[in-house]
Structures are given as C-alpha cells and as structure tokens.
C-alpha cells in the first residue's frame, strides 16, 4: 500500500520524505490555510521534493471553473493531481481533465455509488473519507471493502485512496482490506512507529550496554 501525507506543511513532508517512505501528498484548502506563502509556489515546491502525486484542490464549484483551475494547476508540475469534489460538476470536470491526460482525485466520497461514478468518469483516484463516516456511527472501512469489490469486478483503473484516517488501526485496516493508498496526517503517520514494547526493549538494551561498557573499563 502506498503512503501519502495529508498536509501542506513543507517541513513535515521533507521529514517523512527523508525516511524513504513517502509516495505522494494530498492537500486541501483547509490544510493550505494553515500555512504561509503563495499556494501555487507551495504546490510546486512540494512536487519538486516528493516527485510523486501531489493533490491540489480546485475552489470553483462549477465545471467550467474547475477545468480552468485544473489546467492551470497541472501546468505547475507533471506530479500535480487535480482534486475535485464528488458533485455532478466535479465529474464533468473529471472527464474533461482526464481526456487531456490530467489525473484527477475525486474527493469527499461517502458511498460506493459515488466511487463507482467517479471511476466511470475517469478518476485516477477516489477518496473515501473513513473517519467522517465513523463520526456519524457508520463503519468507514465497510466502504473501502465495497469499493474494492466493485473495482475488482470491473477492473477500473482508479486507485482507492483511503482518506480521513484518524489512527493507526485505520491504516492497518485499510491495508488489510486492499486500499491502494492511505493518506495520513503527520500525527497519525508518526504514531505508526509507536509501541510500548519497542520503547521498553530499547531502554533495556541501552541499560545493558552500559554494563558492557563498565566491564570493559
């Protein structure tokens, strides 16, 4: 499963990229609003660093505006993926951009029917929001399973990008079910490393090594 980072913070992206674990980045207007600087420069800098898919979201709500914004953003880098909302206009834009070989990530997907429509419109990525479904007492991972089955039935090229992941269990479940990608906030990504037995084991090793040093002196 590919790992994307869900942030527009360049320092966080650089930190994770240095580990050799980062396959791409997703951004949205809310994440961009937390950072300073020009949006277009921000996206270009991220693309130059990651050299993998970087989702940049359009602001327009009508197809014509989405298409215009999408073309402009795509010109920044070959790595830009245009993020559009799961609406009728969003799917019109998806088809138009895809026909011009511009990859599209259809976001805010909350049902299997929405994912199927996005795939048929030519989306390169569909982004089901798992945590937000859990928030309303639905089971978000059931949606990943439904989409996986549908896409396998009909061999759609769209990749399932599990989004709105809130904790490491979401990450593991997405991998077990067969999501192609998980996009993680930095906090969740760094939590993947944590286990109390790792911490206690390392502490024991270091304590024992001090004894080795004492015996050697």
Number of helices: 11
Strand content: 15-25%
Uncertain segments are none
Main beta-sheet strand count, sense and barrel state: 8 strands, parallel, barrel
Keywords, separated by commas or semicolons:
217 residues, alpha/beta, TIM Barrel, eight-stranded parallel barrel, 11 helices, globular
Write the layout of secondary structure elements.
Blueprint: E1 2-6, H1 10-17, E2 24-26, H2 29-33, H3 39-50, E3 54-57, H4 63-74, E4 80-85, H5 88-99, E5 104-109, H6 112-120, E6 125-128, H7 130-135, H8 140-154, E7 159-162, H9 168-177, E8 181-184, H10 186-191, H11 196-216
Parallel strand pairs: 1-2, 1-8, 2-3, 3-4, 4-5, 5-6, 6-7, 7-8
Helix pairs in contact: 1-3, 4-5, 6-8, 8-9
Can you characterise this structure?
53% of the residues lie in helices and 17% in strands. The chain is of the alpha/beta class and 217 residues long. The protein has an eight-stranded parallel beta barrel with strand order 1-2-3-4-5-6-7-8, surrounded by six helices. The radius of gyration is 20 Å and the shape is globular.
